[in-house]
Automatic annotation (TrEMBL):
Belongs to the phosphoglycerate mutase family. BPG-dependent PGAM subfamily. The active site is at H9 (tele-phosphohistidine intermediate), E87 (proton donor/acceptor). Its EC number is 5.4.2.11. Gene3D superfamilies: Phosphoglycerate mutase-like. This is 2,3-bisphosphoglycerate-dependent phosphoglycerate mutase. It is an enzyme of class 5 (isomerase). PANTHER family: PHOSPHOGLYCERATE MUTASE. Keywords: Gluconeogenesis, Glycolysis, Isomerase.
Amino acid sequence: MRTLILLRHGESVWNAADRFAGWADVPLSDVGREEAAGAGVLLAKAGLLPDVVHTSLLRRAISTADIALDAAERHWIPVRRTWRLNERHYGALQGRLREEVRTRFGDERFMAWRRSYDVAPPPAEQGAVVAGDRNARYRHLGVTIPATESLKDVLARLLPYWESAICADLHVGRTVLLVAHGNVLRALISHLEQIPSDAIRQITVPTGKPIRCELTDGLRLKFVAARDCQHRPLR
């Protein structure tokens, strides 16, 4: 059995304000920092001590990983960061209030942009601050920032890193903590559980709650320790 721990970052200030964040680099709220510390305490109590952490290049995930590891007394383990674990790019919706978008475009289109598998929001305009297309961290890496993404797009850019880096750690017996974002974790769960694309909208991942996944030697999902709706966090 291989152990993978999934952790969505704690509440961000834009989660609290009900804004689309995507690649916008917003910090944790006070509640989010408490959630991150609580996640680390839960990991320690459960004896789930990670050997390595993988996270995104966005501060809400980085901060969550740092705080959780400190609370679990695992602050010294390797941390690997990649843009491939960044949240889904919400295009022109980034920075906008969700209720404003729902009111303007209607429930059906709003839910398609938020929860469907292959429908992307309208693209961000080039040069938009929340698009992140002028961010030095991505220029340095030679990464072309998307103008918008569907969940299908997220899975496509996530899988090469999953297969080359995370699976490599799992294969040698490391307990892996993956600290990422709601849509990244939804995409990975759909891949591990082989969930049909029309059922993916039902997957929910709460902020700041570790989810323990046990995988077979072939890295197929054996079971999820607990479920919230579909996936419950550790208690």
